Amino acid sequence: MTAARTRTSPADRPQLGLRERKKIKTRAAIREATYRLIDEQGYDATTIEQIAEAAEVSPSTVFRYFPTKEDIVLTDEYDPVLEQEMRARPEDEPLIDSLRYVLRRVVGFGFDEEPAVSRLRTRLMVDVPAVRARMTESMSVTARLLRRAIAQRTGRDTGDLQVRVLATAIVGALLETSLYWAEHDHQDDLPDLLDRALTTFEGTLVR
């Protein structure tokens, strides 16, 4: 699925130690360097060594934070926010309405905060098979979170076949919507496209 913000006041947020702050700063520097280099010279021409130099870290540090170059492009902090937002929705709200609200909110975070990055990432998903393959693989984590959230809402088990199918289908819808958006030169509104995709699931697993 770029860093997302939650609705908490500064006083409510846990204070991070120096080590954690340095880790966050390093991750951000690596990602920013990667996006800049890819934008300037293309994905294939951008090497880990170049990224490390631009981020002022060693190549081993880059690999410590991101196992592959594809991970640098794709890694974000949306999944925990997605689950948190889903659990916060009213219990009597129709499932599809909750999913629509939460997914629009999570997708909106990324586009509002880093619109250029959102466009670059989805463009790479279309143009670079390795990025698309890694994205498909990494979204299994999102599917597991959705399974938990859907199971809790519907009173079903996370291993229930319909729960698993619905969660996986929604993740597929997210992926296909992102690809469609990029293939059409990002002309449409991404949250609106997602709304259109989610209409497919209306009436599914209604309590």
Quick take:
Helices cover 71% and strands 0% of the residues. The N terminus is likely disordered.
Please describe the topology of this protein:
Blueprint (H helix, E strand, L loop, with lengths): L17 H24 L6 H8 L3 H7 L3 H6 L3 H11 L6 H19 L1 H13 L1 H26 L6 H23 L6 H9 L9
Note down, in words, how this protein is organized.
- With 207 residues, the protein is mostly helical.
- The protein is 71% helix and 0% strand.
- It is globular.
- The N terminus is likely disordered.
Report the count of strand segments. 0
Sheet with the most strands?
none
Quote the distance from N terminus to C terminus.
27 Å
- The residue fraction in helices comes out at over 70%
Uncertain parts = 2-13
Q: Counting H and I runs of at least 4 residues, what is the number of helices?
A: 10
Beta-strand percentage range: under 5%
User: Which outline best applies?
Assistant: globular
Radius of gyration: 18 Å
- Mean pLDDT, nearest integer? 85
Quaternary structure: single chain
- SSE order: HHHHHHHHHH
